[in-house]
Design goal:
The complex is a heterodimer of chains A (about 120) and B (about 375). Chain A has 4 helices and 9 strands; from the N terminus they run βββαβββββααβα. Chain A is α+β, with helices and mostly antiparallel strands. Chain A has a single domain, classed as OB fold (Dihydrolipoamide Acetyltransferase, E2P). In chain A, the strands form 2 sheets. A 6-stranded antiparallel beta sheet of chain A has the order 1-2-3-9-8-5. In chain A, strands 4-6-7 form a 3-stranded antiparallel beta sheet. Chain B has a 6-stranded mixed beta sheet with strand order 10-11-12-9-3-13, sandwiched between helices. In chain B, strands 14-17-16-15-18-19 form a 6-stranded antiparallel barrel. Chain B has about 375 residues and is an alpha+beta fold. In chain B, strand 1 and strand 2 form a beta hairpin. Among the domains of chain B are: about 130 residues, 2-Layer Sandwich (Gyrase A, domain 2); about 90 residues, Aminomethyltransferase beta-barrel domains (Elongation Factor Tu (Ef-tu), domain 3). Classes of the chains: A alpha+beta (about 120), B alpha+beta (about 375). The interface between A and B is medium-sized, with 12 and 16 residues. Chain A: The glycine cleavage system is composed of four proteins: P, T, L and H.
Chain lengths: ~120, ~375
């Protein structure tokens, strides 16, 4: 698993990368009440805003961590945004992206580096 | 930056694991480990304890309550003189333009007037009162008492464990009550839409008394985050967001808080700042009005969201002044100002969120029915 400075986690599954937010991020956000997902089939570029999540406190964007195509989104999250707090690392993945250049993964932190990053 | 002030309950908040933030010059708990959502729901289901010691507590002392009341009526459009002893009322300071300088609670304490004002405005409020009312009225800020609120359907049972007499208080009653041997000033009121009490406690006793309450199974500490979502569902104004120096009380849908005796045809009409504007608004109607807003989708419409009459085109007809997610309402809730033409309950308008116009219905306030002890 890799981690971005935007507190996203990336997990490689075959030729796609699953993306969610970290436990740390979900704790910082507070209770998540709204999730807006992209449409499957959307071509995205790295650092483009692809999802919106809103907590009881504020709205935040989720950025595409890689260039590629969104191939699947986690639709049930829209009806159950609280899953982002309950199960951020498994059930509350946001989307799966088919990267056009998997080497972009190398830019991101491993778990130890991410733990240092969040202190 | 000026250092944040601490309330008498600061150490208790930290011990309870609160996340502290700066608010109106004070370090205040925004949430506890329970989190905003569960704190909100707990308050509506049982009882929540809030530290509101940052608010200003002020005593107005004259020769008699009547003298203090008459003087105070030169600053507010409320019936202060007619308020019975041991009773409390909602009010607001107005300015010459008929805008609201701050909203407040005032109580008839028999021989004096007790006023609670917002933290962010308290210095200006006290200066205003001193400038306008001295020397006949002595204006004293109470700085050695904490102020807490105990809110929710279990508040009565919880506080009655410390003194059963509080159960006999009616909504907006105000009394000096001994709680666990401590002389407290207690009112049956709050800022959540729930039954409950606001309790002024000598600072040295505040943490001890709060611990007694928090030891009870049905009482949890509640932070500013849930305080905001509770008052929003309750349709209650936040000064600085929903009302300010440019909003008249008529625009703000606070006409109910101007008693008959202080209206244009009342026995004590006028005599407060901005009376002409306010009476004009009452007689002629207003161009914009504060309304409740129920977004139809799931996306919260936060303060600053522009409102439109149609799904496309046109200039904004208003703006959301407070908005977020209502945990009890189980959806987004908001309030804001709209044009008179859109102010009727049930009117469908649109709020622009991230560049998209989303439907929102003008709704009766409060969006979550109040649960006061009448």
């Amino acid at each position: 698993m890799k981690f971005t400075e935007e507190h996203e986690w990336l997990r490689v599954e075959g030729d796609v990368v699953v993306v969610g937010i970290t436990e740390h991020a979900s704790e910082q956000l507070g209770d998540v009440v709204f999730v807006e997902l992209p449409e499957a089939g959307t071509e995205v570029t790295k650092d483009e805003e692809v999802c919106v999540i809103e907590s009881v406190k504020a709205a935040s964007d989720i950025l595409a961590p890689l260039d590629g195509e969104i191939v699947e989104v986690n639709d049930p999250l829209v009806d159950e945004p609280g899953k982002v707090n309950d199960d951020p690392l498994e059930g509350a993945w946001f989307f799966k992206i088919k990267p056009s250049d998997l080497s972009q993964m190398d830019d991101y932190m491993d778990e130890a580096a991410y733990k240092d990053f969040i202190g | 930056m000026e250092e944040l002030k601490q309330t008498a309950l600061f150490d208790l908040h930290v011990e309870l694991g609160a996340k502290m933030v700066g608010f109106a010059g004070y370090s205040m708990p925004v949430q506890y480990p329970l989190g905003v959502m569960k704190e909100h729901l707990h308050t509506r289901q049982a009882a929540g304890l809030f530290d509101v010691s940052h608010m200003g507590q002020v005593v107005l002392q004259a020769k008699s309550y009547e003298d203090a009341a008459r003087a105070f009526e030169t600053l507010v459009p409320q019936d202060v003189l007619g308020l019975g002893a041991g009773r409390q009322r909602y009010g607001f300071f107005t300015n010459e333009a008929g805008g609201i300088e701050d909203d407040l609670m005032f109580a008839n304490r028999g021989d004096h007037l007790f006023v609670v004002v917002n933290a962010a405005c308290k210095e200006a409020d006290i200066a205003r009162m001193k400038a306008a009312l001295a020397p006949d009225v002595v204006v004293t800020e109470i700085t050695d008492r904490a102020l807490v609120a105990l809110q929710g359907p279990a508040a009565e049972a919880a506080l009655a464990r410390l003194n059963p007499a509080v159960a006999d208080m009616a909504f907006m009653d105000f009394a000096e009550v001994e709680l666990d041997g401590v002389a407290c000033w207690v009112s049956r009121s709050g800022y959540t839409g729930e039954d409950g009490y606001e309790i002024s406690i000598p600072e040295t006793e505040a943490a001890g008394l709060c611990r007694k309450l928090l030891d009870m199974d049905d009482v949890e500490p509640i932070g500013l985050g849930a305080r905001d979502s509770l008052r929003l569902e309750g349709g209650l104004c936040l000064y600085g967001n929903d009302i300010d120096a440019s909003t008249s009380p008529i625009e703000a849908a606070l006409t109910w808080a101007i008693q008959k005796v202080r209206r244009a045809d009342g026995a004590r009409a006028g005599g407060f700042p901005g009376a002409d504007r306010i009476y004009g608004d009452l007689a002629e109607g207003v161009a914009r009005k504060r309304v409740g807003l129920a977004p139809q989708g799931r996306a919260p419409m936060r303060a600053g969201t522009q409102l439109f009459a149609a799904a496309e085109g046109g200039d904004p007809i208003g703006e959301v002044t407070s908005g977020g997610f209502g945990p009890t309402y189980e959806g987004p809730v908001a309030m804001g100002y709209v044009g008179a033409a859109q102010a009727a309950v049930g009117t469908e308008i649109f709020g622009e969120v991230r560049g998209k116009r989303m439907p929102v219905t003008v709704a009766k306030m409060p969006l979550v029915p109040a649960n006061f002890k009448r």
